[in-house]
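hey so i finally got around to running the thing on that chain from the lab meeting. sorry it took forever, my laptop kept dying and i had to restart like 3 times. anyway pasting the input first so we r on the same page abt which one it is
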Amino acid sequence: MSTTVKKEEFLQYKGRPLMRKDNIIYYGSMSDRYIIMMQVLETKTVKDLAVATRVAVQLQQTSPNVRPKDRIVKKTEKDGLWNAMDIASIWLTRALSAK
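ok and heres what got predicted. didnt touch it at all, straight out
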């Protein structure tokens, strides 16, 4: 009888993990130098489903040595989750590829 250990799998977008806690979505890995934090600011109901209409996006450093206020590198607000995910992917890719 073999035993298998199932590794916890996260939802992914463009090869990077997505994690959600209430109205905050984290995109990227905490082991990388940067992550994206998206906060849903407004929603509307469409066919009994809450849909994000306004989302705040922040590119943040993950270093524990940096003060929380100084961790924010870039920030913006976007209309809709799709637009927020689009800019989040661009910012994170550029930040992680910079030397």
